[in-house]
Amino acid sequence: VQLQASGGGLAQAGGSLRLSCAASGSVSSIGAVGWYRQAPGKQRELIATTTNSGNTRYSDSVKGRFTIARDNAKNTVYLQMDSLKPEDTAVYYCNALTLTGAYWGQGTQVTVSS
To answer: Is the dihedral of CA 9, 13, 15, 16 positive or negative?
Structure first.
Protein backbone atom coordinates (compact mmCIF):
# COMPACT_ATOMS: atom_id res chain seq x y z
CA VAL A 1 0.00 0.00 0.00
CA GLN A 2 1.30 3.44 -0.95
CA LEU A 3 -0.20 6.65 0.36
CA GLN A 4 0.21 10.09 -1.20
CA ALA A 5 -0.81 13.04 0.94
CA SER A 6 -1.43 16.46 -0.57
CA GLY A 7 -3.30 19.69 -0.03
CA GLY A 8 -1.28 21.40 2.66
CA GLY A 9 -0.28 25.02 2.49
CA LEU A 10 -0.69 28.38 4.13
CA ALA A 11 -4.02 29.59 5.46
CA GLN A 12 -5.19 32.45 7.62
CA ALA A 13 -6.87 31.86 10.95
CA GLY A 14 -10.52 31.12 10.34
CA GLY A 15 -9.81 29.79 6.88
CA SER A 16 -10.06 26.34 5.38
CA LEU A 17 -7.89 23.72 3.71
CA ARG A 18 -8.63 20.26 2.41
CA LEU A 19 -6.07 17.49 2.60
CA SER A 20 -6.16 14.41 0.42
CA CYS A 21 -4.66 10.98 0.99
CA ALA A 22 -4.65 8.87 -2.16
CA ALA A 23 -3.98 5.15 -1.80
CA SER A 24 -2.56 2.77 -4.38
CA GLY A 25 -1.45 -0.82 -4.36
CA SER A 26 -3.41 -3.31 -2.29
CA VAL A 27 -6.18 -0.84 -1.47
CA SER A 28 -8.72 -3.60 -0.84
CA SER A 29 -6.72 -4.57 2.23
CA ILE A 30 -7.10 -1.18 3.87
CA GLY A 31 -9.27 -0.99 6.95
CA ALA A 32 -9.17 2.14 9.05
CA VAL A 33 -7.52 5.30 7.79
CA GLY A 34 -6.39 8.08 10.06
CA TRP A 35 -4.95 11.55 9.91
CA TYR A 36 -2.20 12.48 12.34
CA ARG A 37 -0.32 15.69 12.84
CA GLN A 38 2.97 16.66 14.42
CA ALA A 39 3.81 20.17 15.49
CA PRO A 40 7.41 21.23 16.12
CA GLY A 41 8.66 19.85 19.42
CA LYS A 42 5.51 17.80 19.99
CA GLN A 43 4.54 14.17 19.61
CA ARG A 44 2.55 12.96 16.65
CA GLU A 45 -1.17 13.23 17.45
CA LEU A 46 -4.06 11.21 16.02
CA ILE A 47 -6.78 13.67 15.08
CA ALA A 48 -9.30 11.82 12.91
CA THR A 49 -10.10 8.29 11.80
CA THR A 50 -12.55 6.62 9.46
CA THR A 51 -13.33 2.93 9.17
CA ASN A 52 -14.59 0.79 6.29
CA SER A 53 -18.07 0.97 7.77
CA GLY A 54 -17.99 4.75 7.75
CA ASN A 55 -17.52 5.32 11.44
CA THR A 56 -15.52 8.43 12.24
CA ARG A 57 -13.81 9.71 15.36
CA TYR A 58 -12.09 12.97 16.15
CA SER A 59 -9.77 14.29 18.79
CA ASP A 60 -11.17 16.98 21.03
CA SER A 61 -8.75 19.46 19.49
CA VAL A 62 -10.41 19.29 16.06
CA LYS A 63 -13.94 18.06 16.77
CA GLY A 64 -16.52 20.30 15.17
CA ARG A 65 -13.97 21.93 12.86
CA PHE A 66 -12.44 19.07 10.85
CA THR A 67 -14.27 16.43 8.81
CA ILE A 68 -12.80 13.17 7.57
CA ALA A 69 -14.41 11.60 4.52
CA ARG A 70 -13.65 8.52 2.48
CA ASP A 71 -14.24 8.13 -1.26
CA ASN A 72 -13.76 4.44 -1.96
CA ALA A 73 -14.27 4.91 -5.70
CA LYS A 74 -11.23 7.18 -5.79
CA ASN A 75 -9.28 5.33 -3.09
CA THR A 76 -8.90 8.64 -1.35
CA VAL A 77 -9.52 9.92 2.15
CA TYR A 78 -10.01 13.64 2.69
CA LEU A 79 -9.60 15.87 5.71
CA GLN A 80 -11.65 19.05 5.42
CA MET A 81 -10.25 21.59 7.87
CA ASP A 82 -12.41 24.60 8.67
CA SER A 83 -12.11 27.38 11.23
CA LEU A 84 -8.37 26.89 11.26
CA LYS A 85 -6.35 28.15 14.20
CA PRO A 86 -2.63 28.95 14.48
CA GLU A 87 -2.30 25.93 16.77
CA ASP A 88 -3.32 23.71 13.85
CA THR A 89 0.09 24.42 12.31
CA ALA A 90 1.82 21.09 11.89
CA VAL A 91 2.92 18.45 9.44
CA TYR A 92 -0.08 16.27 8.65
CA TYR A 93 0.25 12.55 7.88
CA CYS A 94 -2.23 9.94 6.74
CA ASN A 95 -2.05 6.36 7.95
CA ALA A 96 -3.73 3.20 6.71
CA LEU A 97 -4.18 0.02 8.68
CA THR A 98 -4.21 -3.38 7.00
CA LEU A 99 -4.05 -6.93 8.28
CA THR A 100 -0.33 -6.97 7.47
CA GLY A 101 0.62 -3.65 9.00
CA ALA A 102 0.35 0.10 9.04
CA TYR A 103 1.38 2.38 6.20
CA TRP A 104 2.20 6.08 6.24
CA GLY A 105 2.02 8.75 3.62
CA GLN A 106 4.61 11.48 3.42
CA GLY A 107 3.73 14.51 5.47
CA THR A 108 2.15 17.66 4.16
CA GLN A 109 2.80 20.98 5.90
CA VAL A 110 -0.10 23.10 7.11
CA THR A 111 0.70 26.58 8.37
CA VAL A 112 -1.99 28.82 9.84
CA SER A 113 -1.20 32.48 10.33
CA SER A 114 -2.93 34.67 12.89
So the answer is: positive
